[in-house]
């Protein structure tokens, strides 16, 4: 951790862990028609998608995502392009991968990936969403709103919270992201972007406490 990165207190760790656990849907992965790897800063999405492909859970994989301010320097050719290359390096056949290189948010990830599948003549009934660990619930809620006729199953890298903190190397940033995603889970249904998700009282209390403590860099204006 560099000098300009803020360590979190033990209480804040427990609050963030409660939100981390809530964000994960704890679905049991099972065979589906297609998987969609949601673009982000986290190449672990492509790693997990490759693992599940090799486990025989789906024949077709879509990587979706253009660029954001967070990912432009890391993935200069776009998130989906780099994810595809990483999956091919992990022995996923190029012929099994479809590419959607334009999406700029989760709603576009779902909508544009669905269009790419339709163009390929694929109309899936069961879809596996592969995302960052703390993005499972938001991607699920978004997909259920935009694609209600398909069964949605979520998956992500099987990392413990401490291991994820270490992998990113910036505790403050990770907690900011956890808080920001929870805000979207709460607020987006009101805007028509996602289905409603119940937030347990302890998770909501942790969220409010972390906002009060200044973990706000990923919040949207509401």
How would you portray this structure in words?
InterPro entries: Cell_Envelope_Assoc, DUF218, Rossmann-like_a/b/a_fold. The chain is α/β, with parallel strands linked by helices and 222 residues long. It contains 8 helices and 5 strands. It has a 5-stranded parallel β-sheet with strand order 3-2-1-4-5, sandwiched between helices. α1 (10-23) crosses α7, α1 (10-23) packs across α8 and α4 crosses α5. The model has no long low-confidence stretch (mean pLDDT 94).
Task: Describe the SSE topology.
Elements: H1 10-23, E1 34-38, H2 44-54, E2 60-64, H3 79-89, E3 97-100, H4 106-119, E4 126-130, H5 136-146, E5 151-155, H6 161-168, H7 171-187, H8 201-212
Parallel strand pairs: 1-2, 1-4, 2-3, 4-5
Helix pairs in contact: 1-7, 1-8, 2-3, 4-5
Domain DUF218: 36-149
List keywords for this structure.
single chain, 222 residues, alpha/beta, five-stranded parallel beta sheet, 8 helices, 11% strand, globular, Rossmann-like_a/b/a_fold, Cell_Envelope_Assoc, DUF218
Radius of gyration: 17 Å
Strand order of the largest sheet: 3-2-1-4-5
Shape: globular
Helix/sheet category? alpha/beta
Q: Which strand-content bin applies to the residues?
A: 5-15%
Classify the helix fraction into a percent range: 40-55%
Number of strands: 5
- In round numbers, the mean pLDDT is 94
Query: N-to-C SSE series?
Result: HEHEHEHEHEHHH
Q: Which assembly state applies to the chains in this document?
A: single chain
Specify the number of helices. Answer: 8
Largest sheet: 5 strands, parallel
Query: What are the low-pLDDT stretches, counting only 5+ consecutive residues below 50?
Result: none
InterPro entries: Cell_Envelope_Assoc (IPR051599), DUF218 (IPR003848), Rossmann-like_a/b/a_fold (IPR014729)
Pfam families: DUF218 (PF02698)
Domain DUF218: 36-149
């Amino acid at each position: 951790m560099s000098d300009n990165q803020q360590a979190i207190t033990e209480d804040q760790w427990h609050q963030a862990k409660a939100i981390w656990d809530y964000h994960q849907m704890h679905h049991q992965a099972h065979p589906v028609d297609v998987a969609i790897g949601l673009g982000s800063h986290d190449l672990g999405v492509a790693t997990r998608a490759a693992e599940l492909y090799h486990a025989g859970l789906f024949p077709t994989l879509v990587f979706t995502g253009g660029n954001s301010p967070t990912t432009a320097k890391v993935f200069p050719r776009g998130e989906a392009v780099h994810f595809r290359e990483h999956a091919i390096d992990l022995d996923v056949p190029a012929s099994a991968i479809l590419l959607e290189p334009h999406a700029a948010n989760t709603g576009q990830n779902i909508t544009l990936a669905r269009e790419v599948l339709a163009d390929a003549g694929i109309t899936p009934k069961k879809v596996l969403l592969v995302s960052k660990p703390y993005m499972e619930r938001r991607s699920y809620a978004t997909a259920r709103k935009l694609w209600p006729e398909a069964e949605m199953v979520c998956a992500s890298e099987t990392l413990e919270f401490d291991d994820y903190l270490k992998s990113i190397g910036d505790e403050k940033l990770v907690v900011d992201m956890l808080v920001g995603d929870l805000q979207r889970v709460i607020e987006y249904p009101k805007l028509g972007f996602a289905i409603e998700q119940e937030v347990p009282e302890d998770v909501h209390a942790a969220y409010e406490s972390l906002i009060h403590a200044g973990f706000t860099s990923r919040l949207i204006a509401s």
